[in-house]
Design a protein that fits this description.
Arc Repressor Mutant, subunit A, alpha/beta, 12% strand, Rossmann fold, three-stranded antiparallel beta sheet, 370 residues
């Protein structure tokens, strides 16, 4: 079973330029894609960053230097880590289709595992014994059926799913750099799973994970998978964030029912009420994803990928858009409607504000002023 898109190989120069662009200040995955689509290549985009940031009302953001990018590539090579772009062989095909796919993904291990269909299993860090046993059994059965289990290397459900599939292939998604494993006690688990599986991260080496990095990691877990199984999750759990992201990405969402007396099952029971597929064994998942796997799969063009930008925006138009923004998130469609301006102008101004460090992007295409 394979889940692969056609391969495209970057040149060393392209990889270096793309690394410089994504490591530059205020450039995130969506901004990166807009810049690459408009300018055609990363090097040209880098040349225009200072002017765009100034138009957005900020100083020229810090641009990653050639020397810094070369040093990161050398450090990655020393650690056995490869930086791959969407469309290149080790990049998970389904992950490449999400709106904020990492422009470069740091991968290591048995990279063939990244080409196989994945099912995510996530859940409570403070899991019950029954939850741990079920996660282990479910992961084992999915592995035997040819699936790769992907999870976040966290305590509880995540580690149980990984440990059950170290021989059949499992993928750990890291919240920090490959040399900053969290939690530290799972370094042995990571070493074991790299024999038949892989680890991926969008963070640079040396990056110690912070609280806000875990939701970012979760979108990669769901984005790379056909579907996400939540085994145990209390209300306001990080696993529920993963379930929401999976739904936004068009992935299947599965939930394991639990006792209404156990707060660790409150989130999963609510997911089932909201329409998540109820899971009691691996065949429930396999039967649900089989039709998806049988459809032809290609790297789909994302909405707005080909939208042009307009850097000749009149200052009064820019002011009109900024005046409509505030600390409360608002959608792009609402900004276009309320400003009376074209989508091209609004997108351009938002991009300039982001490069100036004045704009924050939220889920569902919402934006707000910092």
């Amino acid at each position: 079973m394979h889940d692969r898109t056609p391969n495209h190989q970057l040149t060393d120069t392209e990889r270096l330029d793309r690394l410089r662009l994504i490591r530059s200040e205020n450039v995130g995955p969506r901004t990166f894609r807009s810049l690459l689509n408009h300018f055609g290549d990363a090097r040209t985009a880098l040349e225009h960053l200072p002017d765009m940031a100034r138009r957005g009302g900020g100083g020229a953001g810090r641009i990653c230097t050639v020397e810094e990018a070369k040093a990161e590539l050398a450090a990655c090579k020393k650690q056995g880590v490869s930086l791959v772009a969407p469309g290149e062989a080790p990049y998970p095909a389904r992950l490449a289709t999400i709106d904020d796919a990492p422009p470069l993904l740091a991968v290591r291990g048995a990279l063939d595992a990244l080409a196989r269909p994945m099912i995510a299993i996530v859940g409570s860090r403070n899991a019950s014994g029954a939850g741990l046993k079920f996660a282990s059994t479910l992961a084992h059965d999915l592995g035997d059926a040819g699936f790769v289990v992907i999870s976040g290397l966290a305590r509880g459900i995540d580690q149980a799913a990984h440990r059950a599939t170290t021989t059949t292939g499992t993928v750990a998604v890291l919240a920090g750099g490959h040399d900053r494993i969290y939690p530290p006690e799972h370094e042995d688990l990571l070493a074991a799973l790299l024999e038949q599986g892989a680890a991926i991260s969008e963070m640079p080496l040396g990056h110690t994970p912070r609280a806000r990095d875990f939701p970012r990691r979760n979108r990669l877990i769901s984005g790379a998978a056909l579907g996400v199984v939540i085994v145990e999750a209390a209300h306001r759990s990080g696993s529920l964030i993963t379930a929401r992201m999976a739904a936004e990405q068009g992935r299947e969402v599965f939930a394991v029912p639990g006792s209404p007396l156990d707060p660790r099952a409150a989130g999963t029971n609510d997911l089932i009420k909201q329409g998540a597929a109820l899971v009691t064994n691996a065949s429930d998942i396999i039967n649900a994803v089989q039709p998806i796997m049988e459809r032809p799969f290609a790297l789909a063009a994302r909405e707005s990928d080909d939208e042009p930008l307009d850097f000749d925006t009149d200052p009064s138009e820019r002011e009109r858009i900024v005046a409509l923004l505030g600390p409360s998130p608002v959608s792009l469609d609402d900004l276009i409607r309320m400003s009376g301006l074209s989508a091209t102008i609004v997108r351009t101004v938002l991009l300039e504000l982001e490069l100036a460090g004045r704009l924050e992007r939220h889920g569902g295409g919402l934006v707000s002023l910092v």
